[in-house]
Amino acid sequence: MSETPAVRRIGVYTSGGDAPGMNAAVRAVVRTAWHLEIGVHGIHRGYAGMMAGTIEPMGRRSVSNIIQQGGTILKTSRAPEFHTAEGRRKAADNLRAHGIDGLVCIGGDGSFRGALDLINEHGVPVVGVPGTIDNDLYGTDLTIGYDTAVNTALDAIDKLRDTGQSHDRMFIIEVMGRHAGFIGLASGIGGGAEEILIPETRTDVEAIAKRIHQRTAAGKTSLIMVVAEGDEIGGAIALGERLKESAGIDFRVSILGHMQRGGRPMAIDRLLASRLGYEAVNALAAGAFNVMVGEVNGEIVHTSLEDTFTRKKPINPALVELAEILAQ
């Protein structure tokens, strides 16, 4: 190497909800570190493993044949103890004991909040890789796992539409998205949903009921509604109850739940994860600490970890308008 890396040994971990493509990111981190002659350790079960010391060296072959696998070979878990100063001190002590002087955190906003605490209290350099199906992190057009999650939801919507048309039924389909409606909007447009409810837009049950009655009066016998779990109405079950009570409209409810997190990552997620894992290690090697690597308009950008979750990533208003027009 022409220059000495700013770090000598890094740790990589996956944290928060699993997302398709996390393994591809781990693979890229490990092999890029080896290419740059930087030692690399895998930290199992996220912050819980960091506190427990379940940390082991990783070689090029330890990440063979994982790029196509869903989930995460490093596993992930909740770690309430890490929310305490003592828990973070324990984690930092274990990192030092293994000679780790930099971290690659693959996760979402909660994971980055934990990383920021570790940075502020113990000075551990961290570079974040956006791994969350919600696509809600500021500083990147797409997050790892989002495209696969949308396609999983879309497949379910297509199948439920077949059933709805066969039986003249109406379905409310709940997708993930507690605070952001990216999955709901994309899968709803792609699935031809007649109504899409997301946290970023106001939900008017009476107006929805009126539109449904207009459609049925015009001869429409089946209908698909997509609702994000974080919509103000309270999700698919609450919406179905309100429509039944106020307008006498009977719906079948399908909650897709955690199935959206699993499955083999699509090509877009594999490519994005590989590129961002590579860029994360290069950022650490160059001394660009405490940032998230993201892709915006095809270019790699660095965003401060704090900005990724304190700045709101907006829904594209043109897509909201498109959904309304195409549903008519």
Explain what this protein looks like in three dimensions.
With 328 residues, this protein is α/β, with parallel strands linked by helices. It folds into two domains: 9-145 and 265-310, 3-Layer(aba) Sandwich (Rossmann fold); 147-261, Phosphofructokinase domain (Rossmann fold, 3-Layer(aba) Sandwich). 43% of the residues lie in helices and 17% in strands. It has eleven helices and eleven strands. It has helices at 22-35, 46-52, 85-97, 109-122, 146-167, 182-190, 205-217, 236-247, 267-286, 305-310, 317-326; strands at residues 9-14, 39-43, 55-57, 102-107, 126-130, 170-175, 195-197, 223-228, 252-255, 291-296, 299-304. It has a seven-stranded mixed sheet, sandwiched between helices. A four-stranded parallel sheet has the order 7-8-6-9, sandwiched between helices. Helix 7 (205-217) links the parallel strand 7 (195-197) and strand 8 (223-228). 48% of the residues are buried. The model has no long low-confidence stretch (mean pLDDT 92).
